[in-house]
Amino acid sequence: MTVQMKGQKMLLGGQWVGRDEVIEVRDPQDNSLIDTVPVASKDDAILCIEEAKEGAKIAASIPVHERIRIIQSAANYIEENKDKFAYMIAREGSKTIREAEKETARCIQTLRISAEEARRIQGETIPFDQMPGSENRVGYYYRFPIGIIAAITPFNDPLNLVAHKVGPAIASGNAIIVKPASVTPLSALMLAEAFEQAGLPPKVLSVITGHGSEIGDILVTHPDIRMISFTGGVEAGEKIIRKAGLKKISMELGSNSPVIVLDDANLEDAVESSISGAFWAAGQNCLGVQRIYVQENIWDDFRDSFVTRTQEYRVGDKQMRETDMGPLINEKEAIRVEKMVNEAIEKGAVLLTGGKRNGAFYSPTVLTNVPDECKLAKEEIFGPVVLLYPISDLDEAIQKANSVEYGLQAGIFTKDIDKAQKAIAQLDVGGIMINDSSDYRIDAMPFGGVKKSGLGREGIKFAIQEMTEPKVVCFKLTNQQL
């Protein structure tokens, strides 16, 4: 399948517009040109927000049944064109075609859940007579949309992570402005087309393309933006918080996810789940398995099996169905990963397999004996690299798992319910997967972390909570017996 290069336009306030200055979107596999997108200016960003102010009023007035219809229609459009969406995900990003097909299917599911949750934005009655002197009062609260949401999205899930912000925003009656990653903007623009085909009123959704250095501050600091939904790195997230001012902020900032394998675990399941969790999307996954703590008496068997399976992982052309892993998003990122691995080896780490770079490709890599002071041990790798550690018992594993500044998700493999419960209670993370790797997620669950892994929760129902506010209504009744 090919997609004809035509110079894409961005969607600003219901209008598809181009600009003389463009960004070239290139395939990281061979650096071939896919298409171009406009470079938005500061004036474009301001115009986008002004249009969204009207869009917020329109969005809030859309009846719930119509929100449901629009979102379902967008999901149907994507399903009807799923091959085109999957091709674009695989072309502009790092995912193989099989990974891209799964992301497309998840996007459809994300939107359908959003449509369902639109009917469940409910309030509650409040017993005001619990307060002496308020016997003649009755009331309730309901949730109302906050207005305009700015969504800043990353490259690693260029369709579904956008849908995770757009679907709940529309379901809850908000306007939303999406700033997609400049290296993977095409999937987001295709999603906007799906909503346009579904009959979403103009100005409710905008997708503005360009450089974050040019338009990012406008979106973050503008007083009419009432919420920032950001997925990306810690450094960028901290800058946004310092600049944003008085508005709601939801952030998913990555991780350094641990997996614990105890001696009663199903070894085959632990290896297979952790391999997938480590190398999915070339390791560019916030939930990706980065550290694996293995009980000493099964250490040799796990290590040998894990290394063997890693060496069997097929790296190559993203569009070939037999390929397991493609390149990183660009050569610069592959060089960054290479430097982190080399630093660890220079400080005493042992390379068990991998450690080779070819352009933007970096081979699936496994290390052990990684010193605690190495960047690999402390920071998010965001690449296809896994660190193995032997541990004596669960207490040691929990202590080491909690030793980093991240806490998104973790995994533990054990048949002992007491040990699983101990890990649940003591691991400092936003989610823990029992007998699965840290990489497991469904789109309906609350998703987010603690410490430097973020603020708030995504997952449609929970994102809607973030994107709405409760309004209390109280009636003081007179001349009426309750």
From TrEMBL:
Annotated keywords: Oxidoreductase
Top-rank EC class of the record's enzyme: oxidoreductase
SUPFAM superfamilies per the UniProt record, alphabetical: ALDH-like
InterPro entries per record: Ald_DH/histidinol_DH, Ald_DH_C, Ald_DH_N, Aldehyde_DH_dom, ALDH-related_metabolic_enz
Pfam families linked: Aldedh (PF00171)
Catalytic activity: (2S)-3-sulfolactaldehyde + NAD(+) + H2O = (2S)-3-sulfolactate + NADH + 2 H(+)
CDD domains, A to Z: ALDH_y4uC
Span of domain Aldehyde dehydrogenase: 16-473
Keyword Oxidoreductase assigned: yes
E.C. number: 1.2.1.97
Cell inner membrane keyword on record: no
Molecular functions (GO terms): lactaldehyde dehydrogenase (NAD+) activity
Protein family per UniProt: Belongs to the aldehyde dehydrogenase family.
Role description: Part of the sulfo-TAL (or sulfo-SFT) pathway, a D-sulfoquinovose degradation pathway that produces sulfolactate (SL). Catalyzes the oxidation of 3-sulfolactaldehyde (SLA) to sulfolactate (SL).
Name listed for the protein in its UniProt record: 3-sulfolactaldehyde dehydrogenase
The organism's taxonomic lineage, starting at the top: Bacteria, Bacillati, Bacillota, Bacilli, Bacillales
